[in-house]
Amino acid sequence: MFRIQSSLRAMGPTLLGSARPSVVGCNNANVKATANLVLSRGKRTKARALAPGAQRIINMLSVFSAHKKQPRRIKLAMEDLIRHNVVQKAWSIFMRDKKLIRTERLKSQYKKIEEAAEELKSLNGYLHFEATKRELGKRFSPEMRIPTETPPNEIWHEDWKVTDIYAKKR
What are the residue ranges spanned by the domains of the chain? Predict the structure, then answer.
């Protein structure tokens, strides 16, 4: 390493960027050579640029201290801001009402399931036991299973024909 540094110093200021390099056979006025280049690990970099080690540290610090990306705030006129807030509030009210309707429907379904289990228990204890017994590998008993909105196993039946319905009914 010491030999490389000493040989660079011996070659003169052309590699260090303090003087213009001269090209043989060309006029210096016509040649636009950049004199502000510095050698760094075999790369040519600008003299004012940071050292690669310093740049690496800056990159790491910027990654570690980065904030969560958020969308820029919308700059709106007063009327547009009022309109935006009204639409946003209406959407939140709509979603709240939709959620309330869904929870009420699920509560009523769960209540009916409990009532059916109690009626089965009062009519025949053995049937209630068989219907609600835990099976190996199953986690919840049937009365604990709440109906949920899940997608079907087969999303789209591609081979469906009108004749399929009539064939199943006969």
Answer: 1-20+34-51, 78-147
